[in-house]
Amino acid sequence: DGVALHRVVPQFLTQFGIAKDVEQRVEWDERPIVDDFETTDFQPGYVSFAGSGHDSRTTEIFIVMPGTDQEQLDYFGTNSWETPFAVVDMAVEGSVLSKIYDGYGDMPPWGNGPDSDRIYDEDGYTTYLPENFPKLDYIDRCYVVEEEGMDDTEAEL
Predict the structure, then answer these.
(1) Which residues touch 108 (CB under 8 Å, ≥6 apart)?
(2) Is the N-terminal amide bond of 44 cis, ω within 30° of 0?
(3) How far apart are CA 65 and CA 94, in angstroms?
(4) C-alpha torsion sign, points 112, 80, 33, 144
(5) Which residue, 67, 97, 127, 154, has most beta carbons within 10 Å?
(6) How far apart are CA 93 and CA 154, in angstroms?
(7) pLDDT tens per residue across span 68-96
(8) What distance in Å separates the CA atoms of residue 14 and residue 5, rounded to the nearest whole number?
(9) How far is CA 34 from CA 24, 31, 38, 83, 138, in A?
C-alpha cells in the first residue's frame, strides 16, 4: 500500500514496487528472485518483473505502456529477468495507464525522474519523493482478488 509509480515513460513502461515501509524495502531488496528463463512476445498491458542483471529481480515490476513501438516490444523479454506474469485486464489504449503522471520522465541517467537507489534509502518515501517529486502517482491499496490455477488449499498456504 502506498507504493510510488516512480518510473513513468509514455509509450514504454511504468515501473513500481519499492515498498513504502522501509523495513519491507530493505528485506525484499536483500532477497532476489531467480530468473524464469522463459520468453514470450510482450504486448501493451503486460506486467513483468524489472531487473538489472541475472537473478536481480526484487519486488519492482513494470507495465508495458500503450503505444509502445514494435521494436521495443520485440526487445522486452530478451533479458532473463523479464518474463510477463500478468496482464492489465482492460483495453490499455485510453485506460488509466494513460493517465499516470509522466512529467518527470525516465530515471537517471535517461531522464529527470526519481532514482530508484534513493527510494530505497531510509528517507526515500518520507523526504526524497515528496520533496523532489510531489506529482508522482501512488497505488493506495493492492490485494489479490482471485488466484488463477490454485485450489482453495493452496491459496490458504
Answers:
(1) 115
(2) no
(3) 10
(4) positive
(5) 97
(6) 35
(7) 999 999 999 888 888 888 888 767 666 78
(8) 7
(9) 19, 10, 12, 11, 27
